[in-house]
Amino acid sequence: MARKDKLSGNEAVAIAMKQIDPDVVAAFPITPSTEIPQYFSKFVADGEVHTEFVPVESEHSAMSACIGAEAAGARTMTATSANGLALMWEMLYIAASCRLPIALAAVNRALSGPINIHNDHSDTMGARDSGWIQIYCETNQEAYDTMIQAFPIAEHKDVRLPIMVCFDGFITSHSVENIELLEDEKVKEFVGEYRPEHYLLDKDNPVSVGPLDLPPYYFEHKRQQAQAMVNAKQVILETAKKFEELTGRKYGLFEEYRMEDAEVAVVIINSTAGTAKAVVDELREKGVKAGLVKIRVFRPFPFEELGKALAGLKAVAVMDKADSFSAAGGPLFAEVRSAMFDHARDTKAVNYIYGLGGRDVRTDDIMKVYEDLLEIAETGKVKSTVNYLGVRE
Amino acid sequence: MKKKMNVTAESSWKEVTPGGVITESGNAGDFRTGDWRSMKPVWNSEKCKQCLMCFPVCPDSSIKVCNGKMEGIDYDHCKGCGICAKVCPFDAIDFVEE
Questions:
Q1: Where are the beta strands (DSSP E) in chain A?
Q2: Is residue A192 part of a domain?
Q3: Are residues B37 and B22 located together in one domain of the fold?
Q4: Residues of chain B contacting residue A198, judged by C-beta atoms under 8 Å apart
Q5: Which CATH number characterizes residue A234's domain?
């Protein structure tokens, strides 16, 4: 029987890691992800896992150790946030280009500066082009479930890419929610044995990893890496299907909430989707045709699927918990609007940048967004494309 | 530039190994570092007394020796440092512009 419990997001992810029992964890503490390696190191000390825990001196070293371990043939995990992820930057690209399926719990926090330890998505959104798969999670349950799905996706022969499981710092990482945990044996069976094709400790088949790659070859390797990300979409869906058979919990590339006959919708990621769903319910009770799309898989980006899901709507608000400083809206907006070009060209799209540095986002803030959308739907006119929600004017 | 693992500069992106992993050893020789050279040593076999002073000082293993005899210079890998010409006691190696 699956075990019901009450856990914080960090506890839930640490337990998922314990059940996965990876060969190596190399990590450096940083708020709000610190508890993950902290809980995990206790599992190591208590002999509950077989993992080699490497307490490194920085996040650059953490990711470097993960790369070395993974290249050696070890199933490897780590966790970080914000500036820790930024310090890993150089190595993130190397992990992806060497096609090493490392799993990283990315607990979203505002990237300094100014210095701030609270939640927004500027850290992982900045890493969106690093070649890592990125899956975003609304709740503790989703974070736990996604971490268990991480290796079957990342290690799949058609993929072989590192994966970030992203969830909101403090809001998800430190809040305790009811959660359903799988039995250890079921997780073990679902995740399976790691059998890399090429690895450094394979003494019968010696290999070199990460060699100099000059103009005659580099482009071909990058094209192959790009294809791996294309392939990841199908593997993510197949893995979600198997996970559903095991748990009954259904996951896709994105979640459509009350979208059947919706005329206006918000596109959002992570925990604020929960707040926004409450607003959708309130509007639906009043007979307003409001819906919500929560993007789960951001890398690979569900370009076609999302464009089709938004077709026929009158107005869409894309919610970014990070600014690109592009002077043209946030990162999610740029990509969602681009996806809408083929399938939802008549739908008006606006952008709201919200919650930076942990600014609270309440139901009345989200209600304001839906009110704006309803006005756009009625008049067909957009007063302002890029907007800042909840900032003092 | 054919490698033992059958990846060449003509291979398509579907044929190269994931992440550029090299699955066979001993293929550093396939990489022609001699392309970088601006000066080159020229061996004069008639002046050469086979003392083999040039062989151990070459940083790129580009003095070709077979059965204890100097047989010439591997221009695919010689970078033109000129050390062999400098150490030769018999002026048997000239050092000239490429």
A1: 3-8, 24-27, 52-55, 76-80, 103-108, 133-137, 163-168, 176-181, 254-257, 264-268, 290-295, 297-299, 315-320, 348-354, 386-389
A2: no
A3: no
A4: 17-18, 21, 23
A5: 3.40.50.970
Q: Determine, for residues B18 and A219 on separate chains, whether the beta-carbon distance falls below 8 Å.
A: no
Say if residue B65 is in the same domain as residue B17.
Answer: no
Mutate which: B4, B13, B35, vs A, most A CBs within 10 A: B13
The answer to whether A344 and A312 have CB atoms below 8 angstroms apart is yes
Is the peptide bond preceding residue A113 cis, with omega within 30 degrees of 0? Answer: yes
| A284 and A169 together in one domain | no
Interface predicted TM-score (ipTM) over 0.85: yes
Residue B44 shares a structural domain with residue B60: yes
pLDDT in tens, A190-241: 999 999 999 999 999 999 999 999 999 999 999 999 999 999 999 999 999 9
- The count of structural domains within chain B is 2
Whether residues B19 and A99 touch (CB distance < 8 A) is answered with: yes
Which structural domain, as residue segments, surrounds residue B11? 1-31
Indicate whether A165 belongs to any domain.
Answer: yes
Cβ-based neighbours of A285, under 8 Å, separated by 6 or more: none
Domain interval for residue A156: 3-186+211-247
For residues B37 and B14, membership in a common domain is answered with: no
- Nearest-Cα distance to chain B for A228, in Å, is 10
Residue A356 and residue A243 in one domain? no
Same domain, A12 and A125: yes
For residue A348, the 8-state DSSP code is E
Contact (CB<8Å) B16/A221: yes
Whole-structure pTM value: 0.92
Q: Which residue of A has its CA nearest to B7?
A: A217
pLDDT tens-digit readout, B5-58: 788 889 999 999 999 999 887 777 878 888 889 999 999 999 999 999 999 999
- Each residue of A237-296: pLDDT tens digit? 999 999 999 999 999 999 999 999 999 999 999 999 999 999 999 999 999 999 999 999
Sign, Cα dihedral of A150, A155, A156, A162: positive
| Whether B50 and B40 share a structural domain | yes
Q: Encoding tokens for residue A40?
A: 């995990």
Packing angle of the helix pair A218-247, A89-97 (nearest 10 deg): 90
pLDDT at B42: 97
Q: State how many domains chain A has.
A: 2
What CATH number is given to the structural domain containing B69?
3.30.70.20
**Continuous segment of H or E residues that includes residue A248:** none
Q: Examine the domain organization and report whether A275 and A350 are in the same domain.
A: yes
**Closest CB to B13 among A197, A205, A220:** A220
Answer yes or no: is pLDDT of B2 > 60.
no
Looking at the predicted structure, is the pLDDT value of residue A17 above 80?
Answer: yes
Please check whether residues B1 and B38 belong to one and the same domain. no
